[in-house]
Structures are given as structure tokens and as C-alpha cells.
Amino acid sequence: MRRYLRIVVLCMACGFCSLLYAFSQLAVSLEEGAGGGGGKPQAAAASWLAGGGRGAARGAGSAAHPGRADRYSLKVQPVEKMHIAVVACGERLEETMTMLKSAIIFSIKPLQFHIFAEDQLHDSFKARLESWSFLQTFNYTLHPITFPSENAAEWKKLFKPCASQRLFLPLILKEVDSLLYVDTDILFLRPVDDIWALLKKFNSTQIAAMAAEHEEPRIGWYNRFARHPYYGKTGVNSGVMLMNMTRMRRKYFKNDMTTVRLRWGDILMPLLKKYKLNITWGDQDLLNIIFFHNPESLFVFPCQWNYRSDHCIYGSNCQEAEEEGVFILHGNRGVYHDDKQPAFRAVYEALRNCSFEDEDIRSLFKSLELELQKTVHTYCGKIYKIFIKQLTKSIGDRYNRPPKER
């Protein structure tokens, strides 16, 4: 009898506790309902263009939900910045500023510029960039030109002044995960966002992306004249180089100097010592040698992402550009500043003289087309529409929509 009585008392106690728990949960629900909306707090969607347009804030700050400020806080997803590096020495200020302008005009996500320049150029860069600060779409950092102290003079005189600085970017910008390096003579005719998106197409072994030096082997330089190993059939051009620098810093590279694989910081100087009498294009040649021995590490993007006069000087040989237009224009060999390739110069002058006013940008391709039509006496000018095909689309996508949709 006592046993049954104990069971009854135990059941009653459990029932009473369950009833108390139910009432407590009901009270909590009523309290939260009075606080301004039930359920879990929703994460705030941070938008770089919070108010639409190029002058909007770069990102929203944290905010607490009304009525629950002391209980919940909303976490804002950080806005991804696209990091672009450029190395400017000598008379490259104006050219570099035009490149930066072209990146700003079309890009969507915020940009972080890393400008490596000789000390005497820093004040000029700062003054010009500060005059653009009203855009609120980019940040910049000015860096000095720095090489390993024991071999600084040798690195600086390799090929063009300061050009080999790019080789040391993974070691200098240690906190940067991914980076787009471009030469000063680059012009973006499509948002930087689109080439930045190629990082997600890398497979597990790829650490960098470049375009082939030539599409047509009959006019290729490396396959005809190189006295050192080079990547693929015609080598690669390093004027536009997309890098996953975290992977570059971690990788151990195969090489022809030792059976031991070497990290990025350990392989550069031995390569220079071995090949310095055989290389012509400096740091680009060293990159070709590295990726010759590590071909699985390179992602090769189409020629329209690094379009040079080589692609049209003897007739068009970049199929992708013919179909979709030029995405990134590369004015190597000084073609922006002489009369050898007037089509290239016309694009450069149009962007250099363009302001950040929406109306000025909208009318850009019309005035440019008129100038390009004057260049049809050249091989590159005969196919001038490839220079404005993507440009027209980029302007339309970015500037012909209402501000709230940008």
C-alpha cells in the first residue's frame, strides 16, 4: 500500500512541476510579444550602397532590435573588399590615376587600393586621391618601395624600375588574403567584381591566375626566343595577376634548383641567381619559371581579361574579345602615349578626361566611338567595336538604372 502511495505522490509532484514550467514559458512569450515582435532576431543585411549610388555609406553599423536592446544585438555581415595593388615609379602618376578611376567607375563592391610608389610620388598620390574622397567607395594605402635589404639594388634594377616589387606582395601584405595586382597601364572596362569572382573558380591547387602571353604561337615571344622555362605553349603575361596570397604563402614549390620544395619567400632569390643572365622580362620571366614547374597552381583566364596590342597588331587573334568585347585593356609598350596604336590611346584619353559625374560617364561611349572610328586605318582600329562593346554594357548596367537599384 505504501508503495502505491509513493507512486501517486511522485506522479502528482511531476505534474505540478510540468504545470509550473508551462506557465513560465507562457510568461516569457507574452513578455517578448510586448517587446515588439517575436521569434529569433534577424541578421541585419549590410549593404555597401545603403542608400543607393556611388556616394552611399560603405557599410551599416550594428543595431539593436527595438525593445530588446539589452538582450539581443544584430551582427552585420562584413562587406567584402576587393584588394588591388599597383606599383608606380618614375613618370607613372597620371597613368596610375587613370587606372584607379576606371576601377572606381564600374565596380560595385568597395575597393581597397595598395599603392606602392617611390617616396617623391606619395604627396601627389595623396592629394589626388583625397580629392576623390567624396565618392566613399574606396580606401587606399600608400606603401614605400621595399625589397629584401641584402639584395635591394639587384631587385630594383631588374627589368623596369620597381617592377619586381610585385613578387614580394604576399610577403609584405601579410594580412591580405586575396589580391588583384595590375600594371599601371591597365584600364578596367568591366567591374572589378567580375575578375574578383574568378577566385571562386580556383580549384584546390590553384593559387594565382594570369592570361597567356600570346594566343598565336607564330608571333609568340617565349616559344621563339626564351632561354628559360616558361608556362604552357606561349608563356603567361603578369600585367594582370589575381592571387590567393594565403595559398601562395603556404605552398611549397617544386623547382629545378633542389629536390627540396621551397616556399615563396625562399624561392625568389635562388631563381634570380640562376637565371639572371637568361631572363629578359624580369619578374614576369621568374613567374613563368615558377609556374612551369608548378602548372597545377595556375588558373589561366581568357585574353579579354588582359587585352594587349599583340592581340590585334597583325590581325585579330583574341576570339573571346571579338565575341564579348575587351574586359581589361593593357596598354603595354607605351601605346597610350604615342601614335603607334591610336585605338588604345583613344580609350585611355577618354577615361583620363572623364569625370565621375553620371552624365559624363553615360556619354563616354558615344564620344569614344567617334574617336575610335578615326583609327580604322590600323589593324586594331578596324575592330574598334571590341573596345566599346563591354564598356557600353558596363555603363548601361551601372548608370542607366534608377539610383535605388544600383
TrEMBL record:
It is found in: Membrane. Pfam families: Glyco_transf_8. Glycosyltransferase which elongates the O-linked glucose attached to EGF-like repeats in the extracellular domain of Notch proteins by catalyzing the addition of xylose. Coiled coil: none annotated. The gene is GXYLT1. It is an enzyme of class 2 (transferase). Its EC number is 2.4.2.42. This is Glucoside xylosyltransferase 1. Keywords: Glycoprotein, Glycosyltransferase, Membrane, Signal-anchor, Transferase, Transmembrane, Transmembrane helix. Belongs to the glycosyltransferase 8 family. One of its GO terms (cellular component) is membrane. It catalyses: 3-O-(beta-D-glucosyl)-L-seryl-[EGF-like domain protein] + UDP-alpha-D-xylose = 3-O-[alpha-D-xylosyl-(1->3)-beta-D-glucosyl]-L-seryl-[EGF-like domain protein] + UDP + H(+). InterPro entries: Glyco_trans_8 (IPR002495), Glycosyltransferase_8 (IPR051993), Nucleotide-diphossugar_trans (IPR029044). GO terms for biological process: protein O-linked glycosylation via N-acetyl-galactosamine. Its main location: membrane. The keyword Transferase applies.
